[in-house]
């Protein structure tokens, strides 16, 4: 059962709250490394190809290997490890991620490099799922949104700040130096968690039937499906932002626009948590965010020739894309508190599968002759489909699948926020 640790009757005191925030920030540091690792490899592919004597296209499979291992490991290992000590599983996942990055930096051949990326992706996927569950477990329900936002903010900041810095470092000292930076970040976070992370209550150990039921759960599946469609639309289009802006607005220096998208991501992920906590209306926030993504992507081709307007559209799109997952995770924890790590792992897997599918579909569409300026319209249509699915799922009366477990919350914390 998903249990939150007992807290004083008056809530979290200042000293206790400060300590808790520091522990969540250590979890977020690991997420920062994950965000950097997931996206920085794309900028390192030419250097890796030259160093290993292969082609950029083949080197690109390093990104595919990491992404697929991430997507598969999150739900698989979170289910298999349910019922065991979550603190050990969390630190173990981060240790695998850290060691695998060190092996990536040392790998002398492309085959070993590929194997190391698979291991890093597997560790990252499990850590992402368990860290969100741990962050939610360390705070009262009224502050859960903020805790989840810190974890998501770590990942978005790793993408926004870490990726340019990682590519810059690689340009001066070689691509392996960026992997050593990732290894160091993981090691610092791991050391802090080993010292400071408190024991976490074990999750309910699910049977194989229960694990499969989580995938087909009528409350969980629509939420995860929306996350998948949003990732197809948002992260898939991001892959081809350079040709889109070049075709629609004659833009060839794409870096400022990437920064605008990334800055929006940091702001969105930071703002989403307090909004969820204050309003208690996660489904409504999801609808608003999806509508903003649809509008920003649909308007992007028309705004591309105008630098400031295009930058604002990218800012809104980035903010929406990164903010979305905080209320989504919050909803999953409310819908299935007894299966917290499993449903969060499914959602994390959906994000990375959506990113891979979006990139593949975008590339196939461009290869088939679709004009690059039409790609944002196609992405907006996918996001609109997610919005329609979300509206349909939240408008239906909730149907019980049997008795719903209730998380063991101390009575002093008050009631859960209801979506």
Structure, described:
This protein has 16 helices and no strands. The protein has 419 residues and is mostly helical. α9 packs antiparallel against α16. The model is unreliable at 1-16 and 400-419 (pLDDT under 50).
Strand content: under 5%
Main β-sheet: number of strands, strand sense, barrel status?
A: none
Shape: globular
The Rg value, from CA coordinates, equals 21 Å
Overall number of strands: 0
Note poorly predicted spans: 1-16, 400-419
* Order of helix and strand elements from N to C terminus: HHHHHHHHHHHHHHHH
User: What percent of residues adopt helix (DSSP H or I)?
Assistant: over 70%
Cα(first) to Cα(last) distance is: 21 Å
Mean pLDDT: 79
| Category by helix and strand content | mainly alpha
Number of helices: 16
Short key terms for the protein model shown above:
mainly alpha; globular; disordered C terminus
Q: Summary?
A:
This protein is mainly α and 419 residues long. The protein has helices at 14-52, 56-59, 61-80, 86-106, 110-137, 144-173, 175-196, 208-216, 220-239, 241-249, 255-279, 282-303, 307-323, 325-335, 340-367, 375-395. The radius of gyration is 21 Å and the shape is globular.
């Amino acid at each position: 059962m998903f249990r939150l640790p007992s807290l004083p009757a008056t809530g979290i005191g200042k000293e206790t709250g400060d300590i808790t925030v520091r522990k969540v920030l250590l979890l977020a540091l690991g997420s920062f490394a994950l965000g950097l690792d997931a996206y920085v490899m794309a900028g390192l592919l030419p250097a890796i190809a030259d160093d290993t004597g292969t082609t950029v296209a083949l080197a690109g499979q390093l990104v595919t290997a990491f992404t697929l291992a991430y997507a598969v490991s999150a739900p698989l290992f979170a289910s298999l490890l349910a019922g065991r000590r979550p603190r050990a599983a969390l630190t173990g996942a981060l240790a695998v991620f850290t060691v695998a990055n060190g092996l990536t930096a040392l790998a002398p051949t492309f085959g070993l490099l590929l194997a190391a990326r698979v291991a890093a992706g597997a560790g990252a996927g499990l850590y992402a799922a368990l860290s969100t569950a741990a962050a939610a477990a360390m705070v009262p329900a009224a502050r859960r949104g903020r805790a989840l936002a810190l974890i998501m903010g770590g990942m978005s900041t790793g993408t926004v700040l870490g990726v340019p810095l990682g590519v810059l470092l690689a340009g001066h000292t070689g691509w392996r130096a960026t992997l050593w930076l990732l290894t160091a970040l993981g090691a610092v976070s791991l050391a802090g968690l080993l010292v400071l992370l408190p024991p976490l209550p074990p999750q309910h150990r699910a049977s194989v039937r229960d694990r499969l039921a989580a995938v087909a759960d009528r409350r969980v599946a629509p939420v995860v499906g929306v996350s998948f469609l949003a990732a197809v639309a948002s992260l898939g289009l991001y892959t081809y932002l350079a040709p889109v802006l070049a075709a629609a607005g004659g833009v060839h220096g794409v870096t400022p626009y990437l920064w605008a998208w990334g800055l929006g991501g940091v702001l969105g992920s930071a703002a989403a948590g307090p909004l969820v906590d204050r309003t208690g209306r996660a489904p409504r926030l999801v609808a608003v965010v999806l509508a903003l993504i649809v509008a920003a992507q649909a308007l992007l081709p028309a705004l591309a020739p105008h630098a400031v307007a295009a930058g604002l559209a990218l800012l809104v799109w980035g903010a929406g894309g990164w903010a979305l997952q905080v209320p989504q995770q919050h909803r999953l924890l409310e819908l299935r508190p007894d299966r917290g790590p499993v449903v969060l792992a499914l959602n994390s897997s959906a994000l990375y599968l959506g990113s891979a599918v979006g990139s593949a579909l975008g590339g196939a569409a461009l290869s088939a002759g679709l004009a690059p300026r039409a790609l944002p319209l196609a992405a907006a249509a996918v996001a609109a489909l997610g919005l329609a699915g979300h509206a349909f799922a939240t408008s239906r009366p909730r149907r019980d699948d049997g008795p719903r477990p209730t998380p063991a919350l101390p009575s002093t914390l008050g009631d859960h926020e209801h979506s």
